[in-house]
Amino acid sequence: xxxxxxxxxxxxxxxxxxxxxxxxxxxxxxxxxxxxxxxxxxxxxxxxxxxxxxxxxxxxxxxxxxxxxxxxxxxxxxxxxxxxxxxxxxxxxxxxxxxxxxxxxxxxxxxxxxxxxxxxxxxxxxxxxxxxxxxxxxxxxxxxxxxxxxxxxxxxxxxxxxxxxxxxxxxxxxxxxxxxxxxxxxxxxxxxxxxxxxxxxxxxxxxxxxxxxxxxxxxxxxxxxxxxxxxxxxxxxxxxxxxxxxxxxxxxxxxxxxxxxxxxxxxxxxxxxxxxxxxxxxxxxxxxxxxxxxxxxxxxxxxxxxxxxxxxxxxxxxxxxxxxxxxxxxxxxxxxxxxxxxxxxxxxxxxxxxxxxxxxxxxxxxxxxxxxxxxxxxxxxxxxxxxxxxxxxxxxxxxxxxxxx
Length: 405
Known about the structure:
The protein is of the alpha/beta class. It is 40% helix and 14% strand. Strand 7, helix 7 and strand 8 form a beta-alpha-beta unit.
């Protein structure tokens, strides 16, 4: 009988561990328990109707077959215009490769710029697929960390610079960060750009949350002098237009690199779904009131969650102006409850909280390996998939659980 043994390369492939928490929540809910889903960055907000109507119209017009692997020209031109204006840059359709979501740009960037054995810097805590894709393609994943300041989280620039070697080829930079909900100020972004230029590094700028912001204006590192020629922007329709399940995104960058993305498109998926690309044109060029309503709803949820978290004894939470994640420091709370330092104890706190309150969240350890310098405990709460009244109810139960005598 034929015995299956996974190819050795599969041992290098990681996963998005937040989905494992979803499975736990589903099992808990199946027993009749109520769950307050703060664990996964999905959205319970409907895609704006004009976008849905545009997809239906495209299907009825027969846009249901294959299309160009790079994406339909009309969408690439619309994106070049939209991305360029928002970031004060000049792009053409040759700089755009449409993708089936934001995530594919990570692996395709790694495959396009990194040789086996070369090093790529990536953030931790951070989106776990960065590390997974670097290691899967036989690169060396080199993590850099963050420090907690009075205003939130900042990149540990001294650590980042110390990690660069002659083998460093690229840097992954997530401004509007998942899971931290932080962003660089002008000084920090300029420092990152200088490092990239001085060491001749390619940069993957993950800008998935560029348009989910509550005040101020987003800025792309690609807009800084000397950076457009070395930066690939990861763009997704998932967040801005509540299109997580539609699976559509794009990579924007130098045409030489984007050409390699298009070659990979041919081999991986042939093309992104044809009719959805027409819906994306409507998303970019049509009525924007739906997007504004999405941001308004998310802001209401953020305000409720931040206020209530900061009212819990032993919890400290910053107020992010971008993305839809909170990353509160719970060190004092968990220590007072008897949970000791480390991954296993924080996981026990998470499971106990779910079983006692129904409140579900992920922890720092779902977002990459801990660095030796880390001595605090954090959890991540996503407010994109739960209504404000349920946030209030759930965090009320969390408060009682943490403050119990």
